[in-house]
Amino acid sequence: MPPLAECDLSARPNPSLSPLADPATVPGFRPADVLIETPPSLWERAICVVIIAMLTGALIGPVFAPLQEETPVLRLVWLPAYAAIAGLLIYRIDRLWRAWPAMLAIVALVGLAFASRYWSIDFVTTMRRVLALAMSCGFALYLGAVFRGPHLPRLLMHATLLMAVGSLVMVFAFPSIGVHQYDNAGLWRGLWYEKNQMGAVMVIGATASAACLASPDPRRWLPAIALALSAMLVLATQSKTSLLCLVLGLAFVGGFWTLRRGGAAFSVVAAWAAVVLAGVGVWVWQSHSVALLEALGKDPSLTGRTDIWDALMRKVADRPWTGYGYGAFWGREGESAPADWVRKETQWPVPNAHNGWIDLLVQLGWPGAILVGALMAVTTMITLFRSMGQGVREGWWALGFLAAFFVLSLSESILLAHQGLPWVLFMAVMTRAVLPAPAPAPLVEKRRRAYQTGSRIAAQYRHGSQRRAFPVR
Questions:
Q1: How confident is the model over 136-149, as pLDDT tens digits?
Q2: How far apart are the two ends of the chain, measured CA to CA in Å?
Q3: What is the distance of C-alpha 262 from the center of its chain?
């Protein structure tokens, strides 16, 4: 396999490959003809699949920490993963230096979390989780710098397909693990603690699979199977948040794919229709939110979430600019006075804020929330700006993921998580956004006008002069 610099296909275009036709129908076509970036080696992809599964908490959490608490055994399980991440970073050090803006963002985030040790209510937990956060961000940097173009969504598609199959095994062969027994009895949870975790992972898999289908990569069967299986498991969880994230992720991928295929006039009409529908949706939510929630089977308090948020915002008011320390607020009962106060207010053992932004406020105050919000805004703007270049090559996976990620952050504590796949993937998207784009092949073939002949100057022939400079005897 030639090095990356020699894989620029714009320097040697394939005249038989039209971007408007299905690449797989071209005789003699190879998948590498539309993939500008070379894929990482098989052993790298295998290691990444294992780490991705660990970041979701698949099977490891329910087996080694059935009570959803950090245990010494669980920490030991992560040591080989940290060693693997460090090895991958060293192995690909030549790719990482190009992502120096992402490195600066990681230093700022980890530095703020580390600084919170000075006012943390649990110094030991803060330091332990800062180390885990640094390793997770390092893995995100590796993913974004090494898995370029469609290779990252394809990696996610493979990983989530394996976890989806494993979830089916748990549901039918070991229902005591794969199906909820008490709360939410009968609903599927697969390899995870609860149904919402499986729903979030399957949303990631479905969005990645849809992006693989929308990308120029002609391999279609496996992404189609992964998309169908992931969507089915989301429905099996009956998680309304996951269902909304699934619809948004697929809508962004499918919408941009349709815009590119439909032409300029269709794109203008579709863009205006999307703006109008978004405005109508906002109006309906503001004026009929209670009726809408009841129609979806949700109570107006969002299963008690609004009570948690009200209690937490009163604690945020006590420390608005510092928070209570990174990862230190949600201690076990009797170990964290502010968390015990929230649990007493809500009358149930609250495990987290069920809102990423409020969880950031209680940990790092407004500086942490503002920094994460700024990174999300900048990443989204850059990704939109590059949607007709890098977005085409990856099937608009980043835009679909960012839409689902933002909605999920309003319902789950996923922002700046020390061990969490959604946050790692966001940092990977940010890394890909700030990297210089490779020189792509033309997205639209330049067509010759009617009755216009090509150049008759020998030096301007597509493949150079047709005459030999010197006669050959």
A1: 999 999 999 999 98
A2: 36
A3: 27
